[in-house]
């Protein structure tokens, strides 16, 4: 199976993606092995070329390139620091299609109309109102899970911070960043992270079922691989409602 442009367009339409949308992609690189192309690089390039054509000149693509580069001697360099969240993310970074934000924890690569606005977002508070996750919420960005599930959606932690769940708390981390002027700057970043003494695993089934019940979770197969999409505001409202009733409902303590 080698997915062509027509099949990729059909996939995006089934996920309710439209021209001029801003779309945030979580992905599994295995999905792109099914795409037309002679080698992995050509497959990746072909896939993103199709997505860019589909959303048009007024659309925007955001792909996470998280690195968690804090409290170490490492200096975050948006041009060179590798993504730590898988090959799908790293392959998009290496296409040089978009520009990368200077957030040393939750950087994203951005292509399209909203690029400048997103590059100016704050990262002093990783899940704050003015962060990339606050942007997803306020602009009702469409999120796609290409070959992965809701467990990949980091936007969930933005909602957990909004609710102030008891199994996470604020920590301040030190970071070093090489900026566009090749100058190293030091930043303190507030991060709502797991409690050190709390052992648990997430259970996303309740959230997924609620999204399906409200008809806010869309499904489409990308070749043989099941994928999902939803908009940020729907996800926020449903997740907030669930957590307000029971602020530990999404975790199973170990």
Topology:
Elements: H1 5-14, E1 22-27, H2 29-32, H3 40-55, E2 60-64, E3 76-77, H4 87-95, E4 99-100, E5 108-112, H5 115-119, H6 132-138, E6 142-146, H7 155-163, E7 168-178, E8 184-194, E9 200-202, H8 205-213, E10 218-222, E11 225-231, H9 232-245, E12 251-253
Parallel strand pairs: 1-2, 1-6, 3-7
Antiparallel strand pairs: 2-5, 4-5, 6-11, 7-8, 9-12, 10-11
Helix pairs in contact: 1-3, 7-9, 8-9
Give a structural overview:
- The structure is a single chain.
- The protein is α/β, with parallel strands linked by helices.
- The protein has one domain.
- 33% of the residues lie in helices and 26% in strands.
- The chain contains nine helices and twelve strands.
- The protein has a seven-stranded mixed sheet.
- Helix 1 packs across helix 3, helix 7 crosses helix 9 and helix 8 crosses helix 9.
- It is globular.
């Amino acid at each position: 199976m080698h997915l062509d442009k027509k099949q990729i367009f059909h996939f995006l339409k089934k996920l309710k993606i439209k021209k001029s949308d801003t779309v945030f992609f979580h992905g599994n690189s295995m999905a792109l092995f099914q795409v037309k192309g002679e080698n992995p690089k050509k497959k990746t390039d072909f896939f993103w070329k199709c997505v860019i054509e589909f959303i048009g000149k007024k659309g925007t693509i955001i792909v996470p390139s998280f690195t968690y580069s804090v409290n170490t001697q490492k200096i975050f360099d948006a041009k060179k620091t590798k993504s730590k969240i898988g090959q799908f993310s790293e392959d998009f970074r290496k296409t040089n299609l978009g520009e990368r934000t200077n957030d040393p924890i939750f950087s994203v690569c951005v292509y399209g109309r909203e690029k400048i606005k997103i590059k100016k977002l704050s990262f002093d508070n990783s899940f704050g109102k003015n962060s990339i996750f606050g942007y997803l919420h306020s602009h009702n960005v469409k999120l796609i899970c290409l070959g992965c599930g809701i467990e990949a959606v980091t936007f969930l932690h933005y909602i957990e911070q909004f609710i102030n769940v008891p199994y996470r708390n604020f920590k301040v981390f030190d970071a070093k960043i090489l900026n566009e002027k090749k100058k190293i700057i030091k930043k303190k970043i507030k991060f709502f992270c797991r409690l050190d003494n709390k052992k648990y695993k997430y259970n996303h089934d309740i959230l997924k079922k609620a999204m399906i019940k409200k008809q806010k979770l869309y499904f489409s197969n990308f070749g043989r691989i099941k994928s999902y999409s939803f908009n940020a505001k729907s996800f926020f409202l449903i997740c907030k409602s669930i957590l307000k009733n029971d602020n530990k409902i999404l975790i199973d303590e170990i």
